[in-house]
Amino acid sequence: MALHNLQPAKGSTHPAKRVGRGQGSGTGKTAARGQKGAKSRTGYSKKLGFEGGQQPLQRRLPKIGFKSRVVKPLAVNIVKYPAIKELSEITMETLKPILKFSKSVKRIKLIGSEAKTLKDKIKDENITTSGK
User: Fold this and answer.
1) Which residues are CB-contacts of 26 (< 8 A; sequence separation ≥ 6)?
2) I need a surface site. Which of 50, 62, 84, 126 has the fewest CB within 10 A?
3) 12-61: per-residue pLDDT in tens?
């Protein structure tokens, strides 16, 4: 038994109502759109999120979600890590065993009262010190 009959059951559908075809049809004049208002006009389409003049939900809620693309460096205080001062040259590889930072850290800034003295030891452009 093949199920090839894709026709609706007899009597289950009705012909489309032709609106705006004169007073005798019962749907003439306003064509079942009511009297006035935006919905009765041609070309009406409800705006996305429109709530009938009430302040829409997306405008009532505060704005959220901003992620800065500026990469902030990891600030490292020299006073807390005295082993940094003993290094002959400062690079990302030499700081890794001392600081144990994650792979996501791309830049490091050395801060503290003695950070300026290490400026000549730095051999990596991703490492900076505070001050001039």
Assistant:
1) none
2) 62
3) 999 999 988 998 888 889 888 888 988 888 888 888 998 988 999 999 99
Whole-structure pTM over 0.90, yes or no? Answer: no
Q: Which two tokens stand for residue 89?
A: 């040259």
45: number of CA atoms within 13 Å, CB side?
3
Q: Label the pairing between strands 127-129 and 108-111.
A: parallel
Q: Which regions of 1-132 does DSSP assign to beta strands (E)?
A: 74-77, 108-111, 127-129
Please report where in the chains the tokens 């800034």 appear, as a residue.
Answer: 109
Contact 58, 49 (CB under 8 A): yes
Which residues is 59 bridged to in the sheet?
Answer: none
Task: Judge whether 130 and 78 are in contact, CB under 8 Å.
Answer: no
